[in-house]
Amino acid sequence: MSKVQIYTTQICPYCHRAKALLRDKGVDYEEVDVMAIPGARDKMIDRTGRTSVPQIFVGDTHVGGCDDLYALESKGALDPLLAS
């Protein structure tokens, strides 16, 4: 199973929603709180070109945000990506 990393903040409802989907699927993930970890937001922006959270990676694949994660799930593409 691919490593999942999610850039978040504790106050972001979309972050909570994305993490809930991953938890419901039994996926372990590394959470990077960009408000709590110095330099984490800058690293996220460097990796994604985006400033909003969540930003989700499955392995080396940048999934995008919460809506992108749910779109993959609705197309049946999330499970194969997670399994790769």
Automatic annotation (TrEMBL):
Gene3D superfamilies membership: Glutaredoxin
GO molecular function: glutathione disulfide oxidoreductase activity
GO cellular component terms attached to this protein's record: cytoplasm
Keyword Cytoplasm applies: yes
Keyword Lipoprotein: no
One GO process term, biological-process aspect: cell redox homeostasis
Pfam families linked to this entry: Glutaredoxin
TM helices/strands, residue ranges: none
Entry-linked InterPro entries: GLR_AS (IPR011767), Glutaredoxin (IPR002109), Glutaredoxin_subgr (IPR014025), GRX_bact (IPR011900), Thioredoxin-like_sf (IPR036249)
Functional summary from the UniProt entry: Has a glutathione-disulfide oxidoreductase activity in the presence of NADPH and glutathione reductase. Reduces low molecular weight disulfides and proteins.
Protein known as: Glutaredoxin
Taxonomic source organism: Candidatus Phaeomarinibacter ectocarpi
